[in-house]
């Protein structure tokens, strides 16, 4: 196993190139800075192991690309959950949005703690499966299974509450 150079040297030598690589993928300078910082923080915290099978720069490049792709995926998921501000200016739409948000929070309470954590970390916060597995100390397969079960349960709970809301609106 080949040793990495000291991490402060790795950061000093490769930060600018790392930013350029990530910026080309995420197409946002601020997001690129966040991804690069996250990668180096993970390296400093020893969450990532260098096996020496490839050159240090190749290994770092692969981590940066994977992290950039994960960031884009998370941004896409967050985009589906967020409502553009221009659409919320209507008080009625804002009230409906607040009601749906409250229903989601209530529905999350019907999930087990593990399912609620996994669904929140993946679908709301945008973490990758390996990140969630590390955070919760679970195998990645367990995370995927818990996410599937949590989403299924959440959909059932929301389906039970949604028709009631629709019937109340029709009663007026």
Fold and architecture overview:
This protein has helices at 7-26, 29-44, 56-81, 91-108, 113-124, 129-136, 140-171. With 172 residues, the protein is mainly α. The chain folds into two domains: 7-80, Rna Polymerase Sigma Factor, Chain: A (Orthogonal Bundle); 83-171, Winged helix-like DNA-binding domain superfamily/Winged helix DNA-binding domain (Arc Repressor Mutant, subunit A). Helix 1 packs across helix 3 and helix 6 (129-136) packs across helix 7. Mean pLDDT is 78; it is low at 164-172.
Compute the number of helices: 7
Oligomer: single chain
What is the rounded distance between the termini? 71 Å
Arithmetic mean pLDDT? 78
Structural class by sheet pairing and helices: mainly alpha
The CATH fourth-level homologous superfamily of the largest domain: Winged helix-like DNA-binding domain superfamily/Winged helix DNA-binding domain
The secondary-structure element order is HHHHHHH
* CATH class bucket of the largest domain: Mainly Alpha
Tell me roughly what share of residues is in helical segments.
Answer: over 70%
CATH architecture descriptor name of the largest domain? Orthogonal Bundle
Beta-strand percent range: under 5%
Instruction: Pick out the low-confidence regions.
Output: 164-172
Number of strands: 0
- Summarize the biggest pleated sheet: none
The coarse silhouette is elongated
Structural domain tally: 2
Determine Rg (CA atoms, Å): 21 Å
């Amino acid at each position: 196993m080949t040793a990495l150079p000291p991490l402060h040297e790795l950061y000093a030598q490769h930060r600018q190139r790392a930013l350029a690589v990530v910026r080309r993928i995420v197409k946002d300078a601020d997001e690129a800075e966040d991804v690069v910082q996250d990668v180096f923080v993970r390296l400093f915290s020893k969450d990532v192991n260098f096996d020496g099978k490839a050159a240090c720069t190749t290994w770092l490049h692969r981590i940066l690309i994977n992290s950039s792709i994960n960031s884009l995926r998370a941004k896409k998921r967050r985009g589906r959950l967020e409502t553009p501000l221009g659409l919320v200016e209507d008080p009625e739409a804002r009230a409906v949005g607040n009601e749906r948000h409250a229903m989601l929070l209530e529905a999350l309470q019907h999930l087990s703690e593990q399912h609620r954590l996994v669904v929140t970390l993946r679908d709301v916060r945008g973490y990758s499966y390996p990140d969630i597995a590390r955070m919760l100390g679970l195998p990645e397969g367990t995370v995927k299974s818990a996410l599937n079960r949590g989403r299924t349960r959440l959909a059932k709970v929301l389906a039970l509450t949604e028709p009631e809301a629709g019937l109340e609106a029709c009663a007026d």
